[in-house]
Amino acid sequence: MNRLELLWTHLRSSFWFLPMLIYAASIVIAVALIEADAGNARGLIDHWPRLFGSGAAGARGMLSTIAGSMMTVVGVTFSMTLVTLALASSQYTSRILRNFMSDRLTQIVLGIFGGIFIYCLIVLRTIRGGEDDYVPSLAVLFGVVFAIGGITMLIFFIHHIASSIQASSIIESVTQETLAAIDRLLPADRDDEGPALEDRTVPATSLHASTSQKVTATRIGYIQSIDAETALRVATEHEAIVRLERGVGEFVVIGTGLASIESQTPAPEDVIDRLAKVFNIYRFRTVDQDPGFGIRQIVDIALRALSPSVNDTTTAAMCVDYLSAILAHLAGREFPSCVHRHEGAVRVVSVEQTFSGLLAGAFDQIRSSARGNLSIIVRMLEALQRLAARARDDQRRRPLAEYLDCMTELRDSLASVYERDQFDATPRRARGVLGR
């Protein structure tokens, strides 16, 4: 992901960018309608006097009322949005707030209400009374139409807020965003056993390299994305091997080693700077190149639901189900090789992402918090069974079998014989699927 793509990601997840575009559009519409009305205002009034025949005082009073009402609605909408953000943060996790902020409908509604207010102001300043009175009748009529549309949007927005605060909507939204990131980053379901081993063989230090230089972080934050194409281009130009030592989603501090460059001659300072800029570091993680962060958000919701203060087993079970959907989407995907070549020569070695690592990230903490909870334990075993049915090779089946062995340790945490009998039946089905 380059800098422009990263900027666009930040803009579309902000509350102000899309509303500002709508405000600009409202100004353009107001000016266009006023100009269109200037040439045939008298003709419109003569043909449709009941629609366009309002005087200067009436038009000014109506637009003033609409403008004042819209500002009141904007305040109510912002209050509803902030209350929703506070409830979502306290009930689920603060990491889902960016999902609410990037909600396109919320941004459009805020932009429409503010845009109607600006539209009325632009039209109001053109209304003149007295001997040379002028009323842009067409623009005034559209002001009424926009006001009716704004009230309709307010009712729809209330319905949208009530729906979006539900646990199922939040978890499904995070899941869809994560699945979309997986589709962008990973190839489609494969039909073979993966690439040849030599394509993934990580080379040792180049025999021709006489120098190895470190590339360090210049700011604090999380690695949001890595521009591997730029790193490959830099390594090719300098005839070097670049080893990316940090992966997407990792936290770094100033001076942390990000990469190393091995070459015959020391790389110039500008080459080191270009490699440092390959890593986009910011104060928070995003899902765009980091599907693990989407998994992390759902895990946080599950842990909050399993906490003694909340004790919401149903929400935690829902999280396990959606996590299994994400992992099932990954089970047949080919993870990109950590070795990047140019014309057959190894140029970049990156941190490899694995299915077993994402599996552990999805279930480890939930497994620890689910001790004694038969419903969640059985739901996790059923999730492993679904994943086993999707696994196509030993690279997927092996971590699933190992995790199934870890799950059997939870049997002793169940209090009654009935619960242990229920537990015993599920792993057998999962092992049967793995055996096939």
Notes on the structure:
The protein has three domains: 3-165, no CATH class; 181-194 and 287-343 and 352-435, no CATH class; 197-282, Alpha-Beta Complex (Aldehyde Oxidoreductase, domain 3). Helix content is 63%, strand content 9%. The chain is built from 16 helices and eight strands. A five-stranded mixed β-sheet has the order 1-5-3-8-7, with helices on one face. Helix 8 packs antiparallel against helix 11 (291-306).
Helix proportion of residues, in percent? 55-70%
Shape: flat
Mean pLDDT: 84
What gyration radius follows from the Cα positions, in whole Å?
Answer: 29 Å
Number of domains: 3
Structural class: alpha+beta
Order of helices and strands: HHHHHHHHEEHEEEHEHHEEHHHH
Largest sheet at a glance?
Answer: 5 strands, mixed
Strand content: 5-15%
Q: Taking strands numbered 1, 2, ... along the chain, how are they ordered across the largest sheet?
A: 1-5-3-8-7
State the low-pLDDT regions, or none: 191-198
Number of strands: 8
- The helix count comes to 16
Give a nutshell description of this structure.
The chain has 436 residues and is of the alpha+beta class.
List keywords for this structure.
436 residues; alpha+beta; Aldehyde Oxidoreductase, domain 3; 5-stranded mixed beta sheet; 3-stranded antiparallel beta sheet; 16 helices; 9% strand; flat
